[in-house]
Design goal:
The protein has 146 residues and is mainly alpha-helical. 66% of the residues lie in helices and 7% in strands. It has 6 helices and 2 strands, in the order ααααββαα.
Length: 146
């Protein structure tokens, strides 16, 4: 039998959803400094944090079709941010990995985003920061079950 969801749970979920969208939309402003569009930056992020991986794995992670991912990877490779290499275990498999330049660019962007957010968190009272910190732990538990 399906578990009934309370109106309170729905309202909290709606507020989390709205806050997440607003947070990401505002932090995305920091991404312009990277010089990459959102799809390329997102693919590079996956390559940095989950790579090396195949084109199919990268396409699946980004929820796009392989031809779309091929164009994105080609552009990132042309910029020196992604490299293709043969798999050590199977020479027929091509693995995609971030280059040192790609990793540097992505981590600099992450620092800009975290810096922008840190400035806002620093303006909170100690009590508000503690509540926010505890809430993050709860949110991580919720997200891990989706």
């Amino acid at each position: 039998m399906a578990r009934r969801i309370s109106p309170e749970a729905e309202e909290i979920a709606d507020r989390i959803h709205s806050a997440a969208i607003h947070l990401l939309r505002k932090l995305r402003r920091e991404d312009a400094a990277s010089g990459l569009n959102a799809p390329r930056l997102s693919a590079l992020s996956v390559a940095v944090f989950a790579g090396p991986l195949t084109l199919g794995e990268l396409a699946a992670a980004e929820q796009v079709r392989p031809p779309t991912m091929t164009r994105i990877v080609d552009a990132l490779q042309a910029q020196g941010l992604i490299a293709r290499g043969k798999s050590a275990s199977d020479g027929r498999i091509v693995r995609i990995a971030a280059t040192p330049a790609g990793r540097k660019l992505l981590l600099a962007g992450r620092r800009r985003r975290v810096g922008a957010l840190s400035r806002q968190v620093a303006a909170l009272s100690a009590k508000q920061r503690a509540v926010l910190s505890n809430g993050i732990e709860v949110l991580k538990k919720v997200v891990s079950k989706i």
